[in-house]
């Protein structure tokens, strides 16, 4: 299956570079380019994109608000957003995740890592958290601003809480299965049930719930 990618960045050269990279992958195609957040929202609706690579700082409408609009649009329920940050300046990355982004990357990520990130987020498999950005999200989740999903971990079984804690640590289904002595299918089923109970869009929101509820402690 070809992943349909929409690129949103206010710098034309950056967009063109990303476009060349994405088009070089056999399993991806660029279906549109946007220079503002508002354009990104409009193109996401019209281009039938599977995933939006979203810059944080853009004119007219920033990437966080654009992400929030995409996440809130029922017609775009299947569209994932991969947010880019410069780390040192874009500390709003946590707000972007709360707004509904499914993953994030720093802009100095290597080309191959960006392609892998697109595949991972498009598949809904995991929150991307390279070292520096992982520390960033831990730091800012110390000050929660309210839950992003429909409930808290108190509605989960003990096993589901164990699974959620491992999801928050960035483990995929196979790694969770190995850690808990489960089959990969059982681990996947637990993750799906947790998402349903918490009414979370994806694993990224599960991570936010785990940190904001205090179930996972930053730095531990």
UniProtKB/TrEMBL annotation:
The keyword Ligase does not apply. Keywords: DNA-binding, Phosphoprotein, Transcription, Transcription regulation. GO terms for biological process: phosphorelay signal transduction system; regulation of DNA-templated transcription. GO terms for molecular function: DNA binding. Signal peptide: none annotated. The keyword RNA-binding does not apply. Residues 149-214 form the HTH luxR-type domain. The modification 4-aspartylphosphate is found at residue 55. InterPro entries: CheY-like_superfamily, NreC/VraR/RcsB-like_REC, Sig_transdc_resp-reg_C-effctor, Sig_transdc_resp-reg_receiver, Tscrpt_reg_LuxR_C, WalR-like. Residues 4-122 form the Response regulatory domain. PANTHER family: TRANSCRIPTIONAL REGULATORY PROTEIN NARL-RELATED, TWO-COMPONENT RESPONSE REGULATOR. This is LuxR family transcriptional regulator. It comes from Streptomyces resistomycificus.
């Amino acid at each position: 299956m070809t992943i349909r990618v929409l690129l949103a960045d206010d710098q034309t050269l950056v967009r063109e570079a990303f476009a060349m990279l994405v088009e070089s992958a056999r399993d991806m195609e660029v279906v549109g380019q946007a220079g503002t957040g508002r354009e990104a929202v409009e193109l996401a609706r019209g281009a039938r994109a599977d995933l939006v690579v979203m810059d944080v700082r853009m004119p007219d409408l920033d990437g966080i608000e654009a992400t929030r609009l995409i996440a809130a649009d029922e017609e775009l329920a299947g569209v994932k957003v991969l947010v880019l940050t410069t780390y040192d300046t874009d500390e709003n990355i946590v707000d972007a995740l709360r707004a509904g982004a499914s993953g994030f990357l720093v802009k100095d990520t290597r080309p191959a890592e960006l392609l892998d990130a697109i595949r991972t987020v498009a598949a809904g498999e995991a929150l991307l958290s390279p070292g520096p950005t992982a520390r960033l999200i831990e730091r800012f989740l110390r000050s929660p601003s309210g839950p992003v999903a429909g409930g808290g971990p108190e509605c989960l079984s003990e096993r589901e809480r164990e699974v959620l804690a491992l999801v928050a640590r960035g483990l995929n289904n196979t790694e969770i299965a190995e850690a808990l002595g489960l089959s990969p299918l059982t681990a996947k089923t637990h993750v799906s049930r947790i998402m349903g109970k918490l009414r979370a869009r994806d694993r990224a929101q599960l991570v936010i719930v785990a940190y904001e509820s205090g179930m996972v402690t930053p730095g531990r």
